[in-house]
Amino acid sequence: MNVKLRSTTLSTVAMLLILTFVPLASAAAQSVFMVNRHLYSETANANADIAAAMVTARREHKRILLDFGANWCGDCQVLDFYYRQSPNVELLAKHFLVVHIDTGHVDHNVDVAKKYHVPIAHGIPSLAVIDAHGNLLYAEREKEFEHTSVEAVTAFLNRWKG
Question: Where are the beta strands (DSSP E) in 35-109?
Fold first, then answer.
């Protein structure tokens, strides 16, 4: 009887430990994964940033990836994490200039989003690809990068690298 009681007690303690530490480990992994980086400047002039990127893109024969988002946006942070994974980091460095455009709470740079046919009202992050002369090559339709993966970003970059 004593052995059976001890076994039940140990099982209960083990279960409590699992229920306690698994969520903590998961939260720790998420916090490492979801580092809140300051990607989107609330004071930047998006049109000036795009114009400067076009000058550089012409010189370096690259395309421009317009990344509409906000620092508070978890999906925007995840997308940036995927940008920094191989092979995406290499694809971006070789073929693209990235311009992060702050959307605030979908109330900032709305005119820039409209110019490039990016439906930020449907959610962020939202992307567009333009050539070195400002010609629109791609505009996201509806939340295509809300739930994505490293592989999906790689496929996207390979498709639009030119």
Answer: 63-69, 96-102
